[in-house]
Write a structure and sequence with these properties.
The complex is a heterodimer of chains A (about 575) and B (about 270).
Chain A: E1 5-13, E2 30-35, E3 38-40, E4 49-54, E5 59-62, E6 64-66, H1 74-82, H2 84-89, E7 91-92, E8 101-102, H3 109-118, E9 121-129, H4 134-141, E10 148-155, H5 159-166, H6 171-185, E11 189-193, H7 197-201, H8 221-235, E12 241-244, H9 254-264, E13 269-271, E14 279-280, E15 288-289, H10 291-300, E16 304-307, E17 314-320, H11 323-329, E18 339-343, E19 347-356, H12 361-376, E20 383-384, H13 398-406, H14 408-417, H15 420-425, H16 437-452, E21 468-471, H17 477-482, E22 486-489, E23 492-496, E24 499-500, E25 507-511, H18 519-530, H19 535-538, H20 542-546, E26 552-556
Parallel strand pairs in A: 1-4, 1-5, 6-9, 9-10, 10-11, 10-25, 11-12, 12-13, 13-16, 16-20, 25-26
Antiparallel strand pairs in A: 1-2, 2-3, 5-21, 7-8, 14-15, 17-19, 18-19, 21-22, 22-23, 23-24
Chain B: E1 3-8, E2 16-17, H1 23-26, H2 31-35, E3 38-41, E4 44-47, H3 48-51, E5 52-56, E6 61-65, E7 70-71, E8 81-85, E9 100-103, E10 119-122, E11 142-148, E12 162-167, E13 183-186, E14 202-206, E15 216-222, H4 224-234, E16 249-255, E17 263-268
Parallel strand pairs in B: 1-6, 2-7, 6-8, 8-9, 9-10, 10-11, 11-12, 12-13, 13-14, 14-17
Antiparallel strand pairs in B: 1-5, 2-3, 3-4, 15-16, 16-17
Classes of the chains: A alpha/beta (about 575), B mainly beta (about 270).
GO molecular function (chain B): formylmethanofuran dehydrogenase activity; transition metal ion binding
Protein name (chain B): Formylmethanofuran dehydrogenase subunit C
Keywords (chain B): Plasmid
Amino acid sequence: MSDAYTLLRGGRVCDPAGAADGTALHGPPRDLYLKDGHIAATPPEGARIGEVVDLDGRIVMAGAIDIHSHIGGGKVNLARLLLPEEHREHGSGPDGLRRSGSGLFTPSSFVTGYRYAEMGYTAAFEPAMLPSNARHTHLELADVPIIDKGCYAVLGNDDFLLERLAAGATQSEVNDYVAWILHATQAVGVKVVNPGGISAFKFNQRRLDLDEAHPHYGITPRRILTTLATALSDLGVPHPLHVHCNNLGIPGNESVTRDTITALDGLPAHLTHLQFHSYGTEGDRRFSSAAAEIAESVNRSPNISVDVGQIIFGQTITASADIMSQFRNSGLASPRKWVCTDIECDGGCGLVPFRYRDKAFVNALQWAIGLELFLLIEDPWRVYLTTDHPNGGPFTSYPHLIRLLMDRSFRNEQLARINPDVAAHSRLGSIDREYTLEEIAIMTRAGPARVLGLRDRGHLRPGAVADVVVYDDLPDREAMFAAPALVFKNGRLVARNGQLTATGWGDTIVVRPEFDSAIERRLKPWFEDHQTVRLGNFRIADGEILDHGRGGLSIVPTLTASDSCF
Amino acid sequence: MSVLSFRLKGPLPGRVDASPLLPHRLAALTVTEIAALPLRLGRGHVVVGELFDLSGGPGDTVEIEGDGRLDFVGAGQSSGTIRIAGAVGHRAGTGMSGGVLVVEGSAGLAAGAAMRGGVLTIGGDAGNELGGALPGERTGMMGGRILVRGSCGDRVGERMRRGLIAVGGDTGAYAALHMNAGSLLIGGRPGAATGHGMRNGTILFRGEIDPLPGFADCGLNQLPFLSLLDNHLSELDGVPPACRGLTGRARRWLGDRGFGGRGELLSCL
């Protein structure tokens, strides 16, 4: 602890979640005080100011938060193994500050942390941690330096839940199971991937609609979805159910997406990589954009937040627990190799390398659909910037994506370059909207923080964690967001002009709702009979995360009746 | 034609990545600049001048005194000649696309892996994965020639797709593993599981073999192409004598049928 303040003097603070005068972007410059890793209130006269950084009217924002980025765990590791050429071509040696690492779209853990920090990101969330892979995921994330991280546990295709639902389990039993999983796997939320579909795939089903019964358990995706969403709502978990809808990537899947929103019937939920779920079947090629319909549906449903999963042209790899869709797409693998596997009956894992080509109609239209969603969903508090890294493209393409959103002429230039049929099939060219800096700050900071329930991140009010990013106000927004002038993590300068200057370790963000531990009486025999580890060994202890002080735990408070979800 | 020689000042203190020492790259530099080139040594770096005494002038031939810890010699070579007096470490000629790489001694692991062109000659023995595939790659050698006077280790020519490998001595286990096409000549005895998973291509050897059950015996054949191949070999430098003298008579097996393969094992008489 130190009694000295760090003063960031004269920045134009863009803090949409801050106090009423928060958006001082066009107002007078403001001073910001950092102390002991937090934002401090203006200190009394005579307080000791250790360091003064003159910002000269540069733009100041909170550290950015990536709500959905596959950065660790079993499938990312398999992806790395599948594409050794990527790691051969993009390697970097140790330089005294950084450890060695490699990779471009599946970077090694250290490189992941460095690149995020250099881009002004101070937290990222791994969205698909299978409970049986939880320990691996946390061990790997423990090697992601600087940034804070959290995981969503994947449920909804695990046989325990499906079997209990089929046997007529009560909502409270499901609630206890969900809470137990959150505790045991040190997760911050729950994701459901293709509810019921991954399990149905193992019973030879190749597609599953919302009201189609599971071939073995006889329950519908709708039931799984609403039960899990209700559970999180009952438990007061701030991040609502993170939903990867059914029938990803199938033309015409927009109806299942809209039905999902309707099925949730006001229950809060987060629909992820919505771009892959907004396809229609119109036109000669039976593939069209349904972004307008989906956006309208999202606009009408204040309980729904989304992230887009924008695609970026170039080589990447798609990594998903949704083996049903990955198996379907395996023929499109480029280079021609792929992996689909079951993981301990909890879920699955499919990896298909993919090259998004701007001259291919389908890929170009996917690109346009993503941008349409960004631009047609009106409330930036409910739509977040993602590429579903690495599925749509690597997270390092965010600055490019921000420029596409903020600069209409740049966007239209890109639209003119891609497959010409897309301009005719998409309304993208006619959309005038340009995101403002405040809106970018909302969709990359304040919004994700709010939907994750992070009360001390995503804003710059006194008491917040001092994750502060300072940008030069450049007309080229891509250059501006690619290399921020200064990045502070916990009040420490970690990057300057997009280059790392210091490294360290972030926290693991978890949630701990209350539950009745009697559920373990049911779980224990299940583990004994069907799992490869026993219940006692399955649970991840705090000490494993804390690792003698190297890691940290940050517990998100659960919601009480007086909190509003949104 | 000028020759640039690298003479070792002493035994290498650790593994050195010699891949920057390619003739076409060095030709553009002065001797002083070359002496200041950084080479990876273990986790750090060292300049060329600290390890080697240089003599001669940069041109299209480079001569290097060999050491078993000198890795990646001629990796990515596309033109010119590199001659090594002595042994080399691992991955000599990896990804080579042209030129000539002559190793007078023995080579370590994965010499000529993922080769696309050029000629690699090894005077001694070669380690495992000679002319093999880079880890995780679907194809291995895609062109060029590898000529080894001595023996080689396991998995020679793994996932090979084109080109010629001639080994004067014995080969280890799993020679031509998952071979797609190309030719592998074995002067000595083939090891266990030769041709496992091969889909196409040719493996030639002398004497008896007990092939894997996936290979169908096609009996004795008179194959005119073998004398053509022998003529071709006679025009090449450095082909091990044990691989020469093909008469055209050979016992032939087709396989690996377990993989739907139509590659051939030829026991030449």
